[in-house]
Design goal:
It is a single chain. The protein has twelve helices and five strands. The protein has about 260 residues and is mainly alpha-helical.
Length: about 260
């Protein structure tokens, strides 16, 4: 299982191997947890927005198809792959990739996979606001009744309204930006959420402490979340005790994550 922070840490690796048992999800928004999962903005079309706003689960085949994974290796072959890699005496990426390729397969997507509906996802999740995205999805559900649409709408309606809007703004800003800019933005969002935002603490209470799964979000509805509320999460925290993130200069600092995903 690779979810949330575990995915944020591992997704930037050169080789990302998944299996028939792999499960991926970014459930943070549904629990009011704020951050900047900028790598989702690098996925095809608006598939990343769909994953982040709904917390939808993917299997290994879907991760390979959308670019989150670089290789799919059946779980029964993992031991053999590990043995082959242990015997290697090189760090040459091309050679390592060739070894992984020997054990890799190209798995078919399940018929009900939402990735087959990328056209609908692009149409709906390109809408300007979260409210418009939900309305567009509901209209598509009336037309076809796809189960994944109902699941997406239900997840978004249960999620933190402020977290939904902050994430949508963040992922759209991150599309043309480099890694450094995205990291700094994510840091500011997290800092402001910890300093002022109630939903991060409420999400932890509802899902991890009391486990009643009935969070009391503030604001409680999407229409109560103003642009001013959202914009605050993207500004430097106005507090002497909170320092802004400063990244060290590196020769490859301008390299975008896009090259890896």
């Amino acid at each position: 299982m690779v979810m949330g922070a575990g995915c944020v840490i591992s997704v930037h690796g050169r080789f990302r191997v998944v299996t028939d048992k792999t499960v991926f999800a970014m459930p943070e928004i549904g629990m009011g947890i704020l951050g900047d999962f900028f790598f989702l903005s690098r996925l095809p079309g608006f598939f990343g927005a769909y994953l982040g706003l709904t917390g939808a689960w993917l299997d290994g085949a879907e991760m390979l198809a959308c670019g989150l994974a670089t290789h799919f290796v059946p779980s029964i072959k993992l031991r053999l792959l590990n043995e082959a890699l242990d015997k290697m005496n090189t760090s040459d990426p091309a050679i390592i990739s060739a070894v992984i390729d020997e054990f890799s397969e190209q798995p078919p997507l399940k018929q009900r996979s939402a990735y087959h509906r990328l056209d609908i996802i692009n149409k709906c999740f390109s809408e300007r606001t979260v409210e418009n995205i939900i309305s567009a999805l509901e209209l598509e559900y009336v037309k076809g009744g796809d189960p994944w649409i109902a699941e997406a709408v239900e997840s978004m309606k249960k999620a933190s309204p402020i977290a939904l809007k902050v994430f949508l703004k963040s992922i759209r800003e991150g599309r043309p930006q480099g890694l450094g800019q995205c990291i700094i933005r994510g840091y500011r969002i997290s800092c402001y959420g910890l300093q002022v935002g109630q939903d991060m603490f409420e999400g932890y209470r509802a899902y991890y402490l009391r486990k009643d799964r009935t969070p009391r979000w503030e604001p409680s509805r999407l229409e109560l979340v103003t642009d001013e509320m959202v914009d605050r999460y993207f500004s430097k925290v106005d507090d002497d005790e909170w320092e802004d993130l400063v990244l060290p200069s590196r020769s490859n600092s301008s390299t975008s994550v896009k090259a890896k995903l």
